[in-house]
Amino acid sequence: MAPGLPGFTIVGLADTALQEARERVRGAIRNSGYEYPPRRITVNLAPADLRKSGASLDLAIALGILVGSEQVVANGRWAVLGELSLGGDLRPIPGLLPMVDALSRRRVSRVVVPLGGLAEAGLAVGIDVVAAATLAEAAAILRESRRGKSRIRPRRVELAADPSAEEEPVPSARADNDHSDAEPGPDLAEVRGQLEARRAMEIALAGGHCMVMIGPPGSGKTLLARTIPGLLPPLDDDEALVATVIASVSGTEPIGGLVRTRPFRAPHHTISHVAMVGGGPHMSPGEVTLANHGVLFLDELPEFDRSTLEALRQPLEDGQVAIARVGRAAVFPARFQLIAAMNPCPCGHAGEGDGRCRCGPGIVARYSGRISGPLRDRIDLWVHMPRVEPREYVAGAAPEGSALVGARIARARRRQIERGNQENCRLRGRTLKAACRLGAAEQAHAIRLAELEGWSARGIERLLRVARTAADLAGCEAVEGHHLDEAARFRSLSWQRAGLEAAG
User: Fold this and answer.
1) How far is the C-alpha of 269 from the C-alpha of 342, rounded, in Å?
2) Is the pTM of this model over 0.85?
3) CATH code, residues 7-156
């Protein structure tokens, strides 16, 4: 605050949204019963070389002006976060949970947040979270804290001790999100026929393996994929915290507690490269990060842009995506499971034998060639899904439902965590060999399968991972020959060609 002609300047590489805070702050101060000081105001955002964005600093700027003009006197060290409306109301902001958690790690003991973000901010530990609905209420909290007593009643994360108090108790912020109102997906019992595909899906979800389904339109590829949310177990505590932070940063939905449901993301094939892996002007997370500890489903796989598909190679291998832009770099988590579906040719009827396909062998080869060899090598299971016979669909016996299959998947996942504290899809090297416990006969059999198919070292590793998952589903301590055969059948080049080049 300095004498001179009235003015309001924000310095420190502020983006447009932050520069517009001048008008929001001016209106909020006047409409909250305070005087906007007619002085030269300079807001310095340090460090000067780091770009700042968003509206999360509105409340801090407004309170700084009130403190600087001696209308509010605060005591102690406070952090304040929130967006202001012109009328002085506080609005929730995206990324509130990681912000409050970072403040806690900086040993800040108290933070004021918008009332709508109280439950989300309360998930952070080691910091006292107080909520305010308006700028006037936030200023009152700072003012009363200096006097050592409070005539107002700040809203905190804890439940009210006195049930007869005037203010209604705030529900515990550490309760899990209630998804009972969410529309349930289809049950696995609705997928008639396709026994091989159902088995492959069970193996893929049990071990976190990547899978591609190939078949004509109407064979049940998308329906089978839509049953995935009902087959996966909930997130554990560590995974839920990461998922909640990602949901907070993305701002996709209000955060009322830890996110326990595993994400299922299904972007359209017109998605851009940046939307898939993240980045952009604000370094936002992409679909691979939003699907962290969950499933990324890509329908019509060859229709995706080639550069978008190739960008999946690093996160599939490393479980994270590194993004570098001019002056900025970020690493986002990306431990997702890729499930994809595709037609065997542009018209979708190759190999059916009814003469409907008019695509020549060259067209089919070019269509399948849109998926590069390195990306194809990272797919653990390839499933050919033929058209279901009408009799089997109408009069066939009902198969197992999601409850039974999901229970087997959960048991197999528990075995993996108890054995090595990681999913089978992440095993490699000596850890993988120790988990498989191959005997002499099984080692010789694995070598014969690899030589027959001409697999690389990565291909052999993926064979053993899938075989280990098949053994976990069966409750076997060691991988046996029939587990290797099942894994090889879903990964063999001949099985891929059965779906991709059937028109030849």
Assistant:
1) 11
2) no
3) 3.30.230.10
Q: How far apart are CA 191 and CA 198, in angstroms?
A: 8
Phi and psi at 469, nearest 5°, equal -70, -40
Name, in order, each residue with C-beta under 8 angstroms of 376's C-beta and a sequence gap of 6 or more. Answer: 496
Q: How many other C-beta atoms can be found within 10 angstroms of the C-beta atom of residue 71?
A: 17
- Distance between CA atoms of residues 402 and 181, nearest Å: 19
Name the residue type at position 202: E
Measure the CA–CA gap between 479 and 465, rounded to whole angstroms.
Answer: 10
Q: Does residue 47 have a cis bond before it (omega within 30 degrees)?
A: yes
Give the pLDDT confidence of 357-399 residue by residue, as tens digits: 888 878 888 888 899 988 988 899 999 998 888 887 787 778 8
pLDDT number for residue 183 = 58
Q: Radius of gyration of the chain from Cα atoms?
A: 28
The average pLDDT across 419-431 equals 90
Tell which residue, 78, 80, 70, 84, has the closest CA to residue 30. 84
Q: At what angle do helices 457-474 and 402-420 cross, to 10 degrees?
A: 120
User: Which among 122-136, 354-368, 480-494 has the top mean pLDDT?
Assistant: 122-136
> Contact at 8 Å (CB) between 276 and 312?
yes
Report phi then psi at 134, rounded to 5: -140, 170
Angle at 185 between CA 179 and CA 188, to 5 degrees: 130
Domain spans, the chain? 7-156
Question: What's the CA gap between 3 and 39, in Å, rounded?
Answer: 6
Helix residue spans in 82-210 (DSSP H): 96-105, 118-121, 135-147, 195-207
Q: Which residue has the tokens 């973000």?
A: 117
Is residue 479 predicted with pLDDT exceeding 80?
A: yes
d(CA 218, CA 200) in angstroms, rounded, equals 19
* Amino acid code (one letter) for 73: V
Length of the chain equals: 504
Instruction: Quote the tokens at residue 137.
Output: 């209420």
- Alpha carbons 269 and 287: distance in angstroms, whole number: 12
Closest CA to 60 of 33, 25, 36: 25
Reported in sequence order, the residue ranges of 148-233 that DSSP labels E, i.e. its strands, are 155-156, 211-214
3-state secondary structure of 340: strand
